[in-house]
Structure formats: structure tokens, C-alpha cells
Design goal:
The chain is of the alpha+beta class and 205 residues long. It has 2 domains: 47 residues, no CATH class; 147 residues, Protein Transport Mog1p, Chain A. The chain is 23% helix and 40% strand. Strands 6-7-8-12-11-10-9 form a 7-stranded antiparallel beta sheet, with helices on both faces. Strand 9 and strand 10 form a beta hairpin. The longest helix has 14 residues.
């Protein structure tokens, strides 16, 4: 098993923060994509089998967005955090379900905004992509004591592609976040519960 730069950096960070007495023991760590690993004193790593077996009961692993106070808790048995694409913005990450044709995207910024302006930006982005939208749900809900917008809309373009996007979004004087789950319009009713499960993993401190 090869040590990649990701795990090398992870091991260094863990070792620097560990007390000296613990250096002779394995150190448990979580990679960016939610996998649990054990870091050995000799610098090697291996998957933490015990932790992997308990992921489902623990509810998954938190993904830290580019905004410190905003995380997305996702089940690593069901979802994969996709590698960053070349040229992709650092504030955007994609998730893909391991067995179902559903996808998710989180975009977080350290920029002030309001929920209303963020909702407008979501529709504007859809329009700039050539999609016409039909709003299905537009309401608010409480998450971690914050007023979060819930938006669901159908989107279709001239080529006949039709999707349903379900989104939670939040903005304040410091930061903003959009968490979306989407699939083909004809499939959304089948996988709505899975989308809602992921959206409900949004946490705001």
C-alpha cells in the first residue's frame, strides 16, 4: 500500500499534535473523504476495520467545508466524496451515491449574503446554464438554531434534459452555503428519501 501525499500530510499533522507518550501507539484519523485510518509509528497507514464496521451506526463522517462553522455529515457506506477536478473552485465539492443515480454538491463561501440573495443566485445559475425552472418547494426550516432556506425545483433545458434539485441554503453576515441533491426528474420520487437524508446532514455552528 503506497503512502499518498494526502496520508503523509495527515500523518504529519496527527504526529505533531500528539503527546510524546502516544507516539508508540497507533493514531486514529479521518481522511477528507470520510475514511477511517490508523497511522502507525513507522509512518505506515491502514484502514481502521473496527471504525469502518461502525460507520452506519455512527451516522457517517463529517465533511468540513471551506467555511469552518459549516459541515456536512454523510454516510461513507452510501456516498463517495468525489476528488476535486482540475480547475474546480476550492469552495465546491461533489458527492456521488455509491449505488443510486443521485448526486450532491456543496458550495460554501466566506462572503456575506442573505438567504434571499442566495436563493436568487441559485435560480440565476440555473438560468445561465440554459435551464428553465419550476419551483416545487420554497420554505424555511430550523437547522442548528439557524433559519435555513429549503428549495426544490424542476429544471429543464432545450435538449429535453429534466432534473429535480433539492437544496438547503443559508447565509449571514460572514458566510454562505448551498447543499444540493439532484437526479433525473423521472427518478426523484424514488430517491427523495435518500436526498433528504443527506441534506439533513448539514450542520451550522
Amino acid at each position: 500500500m503506497k503512502n499518498t501525499p494526502l496520508y503523509a500530510a495527515l500523518a504529519l499533522s496527527a504526529l505533531l499534535s500528539a503527546p510524546l507518550a502516544a507516539l508508540a501507539q497507533d493514531i486514529r484519523a479521518v481522511t477528507e473523504d470520510g475514511r477511517r485510518v490508523l497511522l502507525s509509528p513507522d509512518g505506515k497507514w491502514r484502514f481502521d476495520a473496527k471504525a469502518r464496521a461502525s460507520v452506519a451506526t455512527e451516522g457517517g463522517s463529517p465533511f468540513q467545508t471551506s467555511v469552518k462553522k459549516i459541515t456536512v455529515n454523510f454516510n461513507t457506506n452510501e456516498w463517495t466524496l468525489m476528488p476535486k477536478r482540475e480547475g474546480e473552485a476550492s469552495n465546491k465539492r461533489m458527492f456521488q451515491h455509491r449505488s443510486l443515480p443521485i448526486y450532491s454538491m456543496v458550495i460554501a463561501d466566506e462572503l456575506p449574503a442573505s438567504n434571499e440573495s442566495l436563493k436568487s443566485a441559485i435560480f440565476s445559475n440555473a438560468a445561465s446554464g440554459g435551464f428553465t425552472t419550476t419551483t416545487l418547494i420554497d420554505q424555511s426550516k430550523q437547522i442548528s438554531g439557524h433559519q435555513v432556506g429549503e428549495l426544490r425545483f424542476a429544471a429543464a433545458n432545450k435538449s429535453g434534459m429534466e432534473f429535480v434539485f433539492s437544496s438547503y441554503y443559508y447565509a449571514d453576515e460572514d458566510d454562505n452555503v448551498q447543499l444540493m441533491c439532484y437526479t433525473a426528474q423521472s427518478l426523484f420520487h424514488k430517491y427523495q428519501a435518500e436526498c433528504e437524508k443527506l441534506l439533513n446532514g448539514l450542520a451550522i455552528k
